[in-house]
Amino acid sequence: MSAQAQMRALLDQLMGTARDGDETRQRVKFTDDRVCKSHLLDCCPHDILAGTRMDLGECTKIHDLALRADYEIASKERDLFFELDAMDHLESFISECDRRTDLAKKRLAETQEEISAEVSAKAEKVHELNEEIGKLLAKAEQLGAEGNVDESQKILMEVEKVRAKKKEAEEEYRNSMPASSFQQQKLRVCEVCSAYLGLHDNDRRLADHFGGKLHLGFIQIREKLDQLRKTVAEKQEKRNLDRLRRREEREREEWLSRRSGSRTRDRRRSRSRDRRRRRSRSTSRERRKSSRSRSQDRHRRHRSRSRSHSRGHRWASRDQSAKYK
User: What predicted TM-score, i.e. pTM, was given to this entire model?
Assistant: First the structure.
């Protein structure tokens, strides 16, 4: 890649698709299904294993550093939950690698000579010490490249101790095997990257393997997968809690609404009863008033008739008295 292309890629990674106002680059959004979500999260195996013995070639989905920058900017404002897609991708890839590892183990078991369980355990011990030496040498080389010479020297001293243990383990293994069988290269499958490791591999070969891009790439993928599983589990738990809280709030609002409606209906009923009572009292008063009025009228009429009768009686008495006189 030329210096100009590197500078363009760096700007894309920092500023996204809109860094220079080019609208044609924004036609594909990072949310598009055609975009690799693992690439956006910087964990696509096609990127990590590029240039190794297990180079997977180009990914079938879109890889663009500018889209990754767009995603990183957008993910600060809202949760896009792309981790689930990336987790499914890596799980599928690792599952296929583990399947190849199991097949390689079966193939070795079929082709290599059968040995007793005791001899097999001694060979396994040599393999384990080989792996420890390889990892320590790779770490020492990394520290030395970073300028941390003192730490690198300490690790090299540990390597010497492990080498002494390996020598003793090899002697035990040699003494338990016939000379003709011992010279045969006993292989083992690496549990991380499924590469073959030899029982008699030298330190340089072991350091190259455990410090190589292939082995470290698989470690990165497996560690990223573990991290994604943890993140997805936490986010799913958070979503479930948020969903439960929203449901409880909705149920509470519905309960308050029903309670408010019930109170409103109670108030309406109460007002209706009050109006009926008032109408009833008013009607009763009117009836009583009407009754009193009728009673008074009757009383007045009775008194009037009584007075009229009394006057008539008096006049009649007077007339009769005058007649006798």
Answer: 0.63
